[in-house]
Amino acid sequence: MDDLQTITDLLYRPGEPMRGSTMTDDQALAFAREHCWFTEFCLVRQWLWIDLDVSEAQRVELEKTRRQPVILYAHSVIYDSARRWDVGDVVRTSPLSLFEEGFLFRTLNSTYVLLGEGQRKRATLETVGRIRF
Q: Residue ranges of the domains in the chain?
């Protein structure tokens, strides 16, 4: 399969359904301001939880830095406390550090609040690295 088709499949073909928070955007913003005061935060919708296919050596390196072989890709930024992204932008995160409450995807430097429905998929590092913004 060619690279373009692999990327298209990852971003747009159905995956395993997942649920994020059912909060409205305003409720999520209030929640994040109250609970994420120690880190930057970003509210996202239309998100993909991507389990990365990594080698054992890569997995060990991630574990040494308290990270897991999972990244988040979101088609729609709702709000970003650090103003790194505008409303409606797409975002791809660094690897997962901690997943809490069924909707808080924490990396080492940010918390992503997963809103609404999402999907879980699997991909190689190479495929994820080929996604252009």
A: 3-129
